[in-house]
Amino acid sequence: MVAALFRDAPARRAEPDRPEPVGKHVWGRLSATPDGSLGEPIGVVFGWLGAELGRRNPGAAQPVVCVMDGQGCLWDGCRQHLPAGAVEVLDLLHVAPRLWQAAHLFHPEGTAAAADFVRDRLHRVLAGQSRGVAMGLRRMGTMRRLCPAKARRLAVICRYLVANGSRMRYDEYLRNGYPIASGVIEGACRSYVKDRMERSGMRWTREGAQAMLDVRSEYLNGQRERFHEHRIQAETARLYPNRTILLELDWPLAV
Predict the structure, then answer these.
(1) What's the chain's average pLDDT?
(2) Which of 63, 96, 132, 241 has its CA 20 to 30 A from that of 161?
(3) Residues of 96-134 as b/e, b for ≥16 C-beta within 10 angstroms?
(4) Around 49, how many Cα atoms within 13 Å sit in the side-chain half-sphere?
């Protein structure tokens, strides 16, 4: 795993094929607030997730794994809307950049020393020693007598590692076969949103963009035909609310 992050030359032995995600569904919700803050969409998206879990995993018979970054409102949504005991996993790809930032406080960018610094701590983080890594970074900063600006940046990094320590039990997650990175989610965001919404010359209103995301999610989720059937029925009921009245009348026959 560390070799993949550092893009080392692949081993000569044949690697087994990675499992493909199945039953993947996508949804999208734009912020409804003028300032662009998340707000209401958090509850909507996690409400969708909760409903999907209820359908796929009735009675919470199987463990639920939630892989996200360190944003607090996302973890709040997880605890409020998903089953109790859901396994919270901090995306490893949000940890690695912090380790690189720490490395560049002690070693110049682009040097082998910085790469070795990160590689060593990534191995330790994957072994479930994230708190020890944070303690070591603090001790190293004290011994090296970092300038105040660098010391503040190091303190932020260490606080991040400590605050998310309960979500960084990667040794346990790997033993259980849990995902520890959100690559499948990032890929879905690209194919679902970016590839359709950010083409050359495109401009969107909030309402139009949300409508496009709603339609595109139905297409990607394999529900296009069901969506069109529902839309035809709904539009028929809206446009012709009295269409069945004539059929219900007892018309006299002329003799």
Answers:
(1) 86
(2) 63
(3) bebbbebbbbbbeeeeeebeebbbebbeebbebbbeebb
(4) 21
Q: Hey, how many other C-beta atoms are within 10 angstroms of the C-beta on 188?
A: 18
pLDDT per residue over 178-237, tens digit each?
Answer: 989 887 778 888 888 988 999 999 999 888 998 999 999 999 888 889 999 999 999 999
Residue 140's domain spans which residues? 93-165
pLDDT digits (tens, 9 = 90+) for 60-78: 888 999 998 878 888 888 8
How many domains would you assign to the chain?
1
Containing 177, the helix (H) or strand (E) segment is: none
Residue 38: phi and psi, rounded to 5, are -70, -60
Query: Tell me, what amino acid is at 216?
Result: R
Q: What digits encode the pLDDT tens for the residues 115-133?
A: 999 999 999 999 999 999 9
Is beta strand 65-68 parallel, antiparallel or unpaired with respect to 87-90?
parallel
Sign of torsion over alpha carbons 188, 191, 196, 201: positive
Query: Which tokens belong to 211?
Result: 């409508």
Sign of the dihedral defined by the CA atoms of residues 161, 166, 172, 174, in that order: negative
Residue 245 has what pLDDT?
78
Q: Is 129 within a domain?
A: yes
In the numeric block, the tokens 């809307």 are attached to 81
Q: Measured between alpha carbons, how far is 219 from 157 in angstroms, rounded to an integer?
A: 41
pLDDT at 255 over 90: no
- Class of residue 53 by CB neighbours under 10 A (exposed 0-12, middle 13-18, buried 19+): middle
